[in-house]
Design brief:
There is one protein chain. The chain is α+β, with helices and mostly antiparallel strands. Helix content is 38%, strand content 18%. The chain contains 21 helices and 21 strands. It has a 7-stranded antiparallel beta sheet with strand order 1-20-19-15-14-9-8. Strand 17, helix 21 and strand 18 form a beta-alpha-beta unit.
Length: 551
């Protein structure tokens, strides 16, 4: 991680020091017709190629998602889940696609207790629920796209079969997890060279994954969930003692869910309902409105303190309530209401910490996830997130397929009194939180999101405030120094926050630490549509490998 941190310290310092009208260290980019941003330059280039040749936002998004499954293989893939918010320009409607899978038919608390387990393991096949990503791709294309699956996956197949240059960041990430990879022979053969990480600039070829993608391209999602490939996945999980069967794969369906929304300043902010933590983000926004944050200034102790205290309250509510609404009664309307925010935030004080019930919702970790966003020439927009959850997911690859299985099942509870308790056919709680911002007339203002696991709502509120409250350009907004509340109330601050501010926060009871910029603070991306010119303005976070392209 050293390279990333050395590069980012001056980036974030300058973004904080320069007036909003001045340039960020990375160039601000904008285009008249269309814009894309994703967690890798090759994925962004593939998405822009789709748009330049007549494809729409959904076509570009699924193409980018396919490429990201190849070039960010430790973060996402065909063995993971995804979520999509789609803004349809002609109607002004927003659609939500839940592409997350469910627990297998054998997944019960009794199964784990019989093995002497009190929690679901964080890795291995017992952490695997049904992967939903591939079905999500197809469902999005069928409803709103113009491309076939074969067209959308062609760039991903090419990159997987021909190989792509390993970036310094990917080499560092693989090097950090060599021990994990060596446990699984299929993972080791794919990602290690003589037992070590591949060197930067070398080609990473994934022929097994290319073959799997060709099968999906030819036969569609059906090939992944039924037939020989599905049986191969189920047989491997069964041999290893896991909980997902061929019948579980065959039964999987995505769902189109009504998005949730709240007002913030003069915008409408749209997120996805549970089983995601979208409600946590919207609750944080409502809690923030109780304070004149703009007047305080974005780098002030008051500003950081009040947002951090609100985050603790929202995370405590998340840990108490959020689960699959098909199995639990989740009070979403109340959680995101302004009345509840006034009640919940009444005890927040500016001079001391008061939120002591944050639970474990701010646990450490980066969240091994990718985000992408598109605004096309017609004004349609996609805000999409795709994930394996932990680095290389469960740490298991289905031999001969290139499929890295995620570990989203690790987020189920075994507490019989918790709404997120594991059950057959139940979706796990998800940290994934794509978002949109609409103008008062219902037109699109921004599409934005971030990787970062539990920290996603904290990153999102900071980026949104940077744009709406402090007049930053999209690129400045994602480069600016961030804070994040971690487990046990630790408040991490990136360089660029003044020494006096850190000292004031510490006097108020915050457990302050300075932490170099890293993936733990997210990897935010945003496309803002200028209300007057309709230019698509892009911000892409250098904390990861995010890259934006405009036309």
């Amino acid at each position: 991680m050293t390279l990333v941190r050395r590069t980012l310290v001056p980036v974030t310092f300058l973004a904080a020091a320069l007036p909003a009208q001045m340039l960020s260290l990375r160039p601000d980019i904008a285009g008249r017709h269309a814009a894309v941003s994703s967690d890798h330059a090759l994925a962004s280039a593939a998405g822009m190629e789709v748009l330049r040749h007549g494809g729409n936002a959904i076509d570009a998004a699924i193409t980018m998602a396919g490429v990201l499954a190849v070039v960010r293989p430790h973060m996402n893939g065909v063995g993971g889940d995804n979520f999509i918010l789609y803004y349809e320009a002609k109607s002004g409607r927003v659609y939500g696609l839940n592409g997350s899978g469910r627990a297998g038919e054998r997944a019960t608390p009794a199964f784990f207790s019989a093995k002497g387990l009190t929690t679901v393991p964080q890795n291995g096949v017992l952490s695997v629920s049904v992967p939903g990503a591939v079905r999500g791709w197809e469902d999005a294309l069928r409803r709103f796209g113009t491309f076939t699956m074969a067209q959308a996956l062609a760039p991903a197949i090419r990159v997987a079969s021909e190989g792509f240059p390993v970036s310094p960041r990917l080499a560092l990430d693989i090097a950090a997890d060599v021990k994990l990879l060596t446990v699984d022979s299929a993972l080791a053969r794919t990602f290690l060279v003589d037992g070590a990480a591949p060197r930067p600039g070398s080609l990473l070829v994934q022929r097994d994954l290319a073959a799997t993608l060709r099968t999906i391209a030819t036969r569609g999602a059906t090939a992944y969930y039924t037939g020989p490939l599905a049986q191969r996945i189920a047989d491997f999980i069964g041999r290893e003692g896991g909980l997902v069967t061929a019948a579980d794969l065959a039964a999987h369906r995505s769902t189109w869910d009504e998005p949730i929304r709240t007002s913030y300043l003069d915008k409408t902010i749209v997120a996805l309902p549970p089983n995601t933590q979208g409600a946590t983000f919207l609750e944080m926004l409502s809690l923030a409105e109780a304070h004149d944050l703009t007047a305080m200034g974005r780098g002030s102790a008051d500003y950081i303190h009040l947002l951090a205290e609100g985050a603790k309250l929202a995370y405590a509510d998340r840990d108490r309530f959020i689960a699959d609404p098909a199995f639990a009664s989740v009070p979403v309307d109340r959680l995101i209401s302004k009345a509840y925010a006034r009640e919940r935030g009444a005890g927040i004080r500016v001079d001391t910490i008061t939120a002591k019930d944050a639970g474990d919702g701010t646990r450490n970790g980066t969240g091994d996830t990718v985000y992408l966003t598109v605004v096309d020439a017609q004004g349609n927009a996609v805000s999409m997130i795709q994930s394996l959850f932990a680095v290389f997911g469960s740490g298991r690859m289905v031999p001969g397929t290139g499929i890295v299985l995620h570990n989203r099942g690790a987020l189920y509870s075994l507490d019989p009194n918790h709404p997120n308790i594991i059950a057959p056919g139940k979706r796990p709680f998800h940290t994934l939180t794509p978002a949109l911002a609409l103008n008062g007339d219902g037109s699109l203002f921004a599409s934005f999101g971030t990787p970062g696991g539990d920290g996603q709502p904290q990153t999102l509120i900071q980026v949104l405030n940077n744009v709406l409250r402090f007049g930053m350009s999209p690129q400045q907004a994602v480069e600016a120094p961030r804070w994040r509340v971690f487990a046990n109330g630790r408040l991490a601050l990136e360089p660029g926050v003044a020494d006096a501010v850190r000292a004031t926060l510490a006097r108020r009871g915050q457990r302050v630490s300075e932490q170099p910029p890293s993936a733990e603070f997210g990897g935010a991306q945003i496309i803002v549509v200028d209300p007057a010119s309709k230019a698509r303005r892009v911000g892409s976070d250098p904390r990861r490998e995010a890259y934006g392209i405009v036309w």
